[in-house]
Amino acid sequence: MPPRQKTAWQAVLFQQRYPICLLILLLTGSGYLQLDTPLSLHQQWLLITGRTPEQFQEFVYLFATLPRLAMALIVGATLGLAGSMLQQVTRNPLLSPLTLGTSSGAWLALIIVSVWFPSLAPDTTSLLVMTGSLLSMGLVLTIAGIRQLAGLPVILAGMAVNILLGSITSAIILLRDQYAKQLFIWGAGDLAQNDWQWLGWLAPKLLIALPILVFAPRLLQLLKLGQQGAGARGLSVTPALLILFAATLWLVSASVTAVGIISFIGLIAPNITRLCGARTAKDQLWFSTIMGALLLLFADLFARLISLWTIEIIPTGTATAICGAPVLIALALKKMRAEDQLSLQALPFRRIRAKHWLLLVSVTVCSFIVASVFSNNGEFWQWRLPDNAQWQLRSPRIVAALAAGITMAVAGTLLQRLIYNPLASPDLLGVSAGASAALVLYTLIFGEPLTSAGPVIALAGSAGLLLILLVLAKRQQFSPAAIVLLGISLTALVEALIQFALANGNENVYAILAWLAGSTYRVEATQAAVLLAGSLLILLAALLCSRWLTLLSIGKPLALGRGMPVTTSTWALLSLVALSCALVTAILGPIGFIGLLAPHLARLSGAQSARSQLVTAALLGASLLMLADWLGRNLVYPGQIAAGTLASALGGCYFIFLLLRSKIHA
Known about the structure:
It is a single chain. The protein is built from 28 helices and 2 strands. It has helices at about 5-15, 15-35, 40-50, 55-90, 100-115, 120-145, 155-175, 185-190, 195-205, 210-225, 225-230, 235-260, 265-275, 280-310, 315-330, 355-375, 390-420, 430-445, 455-475, 480-505, 510-515, 525-545, 545-555, 555-560, 565-585, 595-605, 610-635, 645-665; strands at about 375, 380-385. Strands 1-2 form a two-stranded antiparallel ribbon. Strand 1 (about 375) and strand 2 form a beta hairpin. The radius of gyration is 26 Å and the shape is globular. The protein starts with a helix and ends with a helix.
């Protein structure tokens, strides 16, 4: 088609996008109602117009299919509207309601209510869940700062809060699992309905969307001029921003409370709206609302179709993540704006001296001793050498924690130096998530326990995801911002698969969840020995490649000038990273943030050269994870908290500290 003719067709489509979108919505909704029902159109019409159902299929149609369709339309429209408001207010096309932490806050609040206040009325529970989502979003906005809403820092703040609150939630579930058995489907996001009760609860709370659609466009159009320009035209900027944010928070919180975590709709709908030619604030707001309803209806239709072809029920949240993650990846591959570039830096180097080496070794030895002989017996803490039986139970866990700390610290150091990114770590970039996804998929497909899956499967997952990440990031010249955003996208997709496994799991659900928390609880002596041997070999291999790492850290042109095989050495070191993640994940599960925290602390300790940073990070990683495992064993005795959960909580706090530090120095 000639360019002019193509442009003319595009112009026609843009002008007629409302009737076209509404027609598609009508046809999709009609097809949605015909899926898996033997009822004729006449019977369906009679039920819709008020006939009393008599047969089972009629009850299913009236009290399951119709309310599910209505819920998909109303929640999708709400999320599309909320996403458009957020993106217009902040002028950030990467922002969406759930990236601001609402899901993790609501999930934590629901778990707390279910465990400690199970007798509360449903309306009170819903109010507390909404309060949790509001508070978590407020925390994200506080960390990022109002001036950082237009760039990537607010996305990173949302990720940090999600990880921190998620680790707390996982710890509570594992400690009180008997109270959380029915909540996993909510965490996966599900539109399934048994009656009209939830729709009746949700609809009145979303009525504020009507005045928003009428009055918000003028405010948003003025805010496009900037705060000074809007103020010069008589707009009280601060009250207007507070009103828009409060309305958005209310809409998202109510929707999340009713159907669980439905991701990506609030991100994708406004971006598609702009691609379809919407430019004014009113046009973007109205068309995003329609597009959100259409997208969620498509996703739920896809979930229902897949559920018909398989024996598993696919939650709608999983379907939206599968469809939405590629869109976020495509957005990440677009040209980065100035606001999206990361100014976040690691802590500065200091010169390391002999006394520092002595202190590091002493800390590691003391950590090992404390983990071995200092314990809580339920009544008081005591120093006591373990007897033979206690040592046989305790030693594999200590050795496994020590080895995993070394391995993840080495992997984080290699990544940070290879891609020149202070935020690079296996968990933030999705490398560990790749191993987790491979192992969970193995469990789902073959029905075997996680313990039967070997490191080879985990290696395939971590190496595959790392390869995808690097291939995609190459288009952005390995920009730190692009790499982090791609890692977030891939991790979101993997987490959706894991949530699906939890929502459809059987008696193995808590075994999967305990493994995902990064626990040493079930590690045997043989596995600990294998992990320790593997960690030492990985550390030795990294030290032997330290010259490569030093030259690559300075720059690839210099490395080429010195005659170094840059491509071969880069892939060899990245393979070492994938092997590290696979080894740890296959035995313990994903261990978060040690790969970020240990290299940063090594820099602060004075480790400047690649060799010294590798050794220092390994010692610090071993100490941190041994102490995390020791605290997990004793802090809530006789209950236990997984070492990976405590490490994630500690690392999440450190990540938030980095973001706050970056904001202060900006």
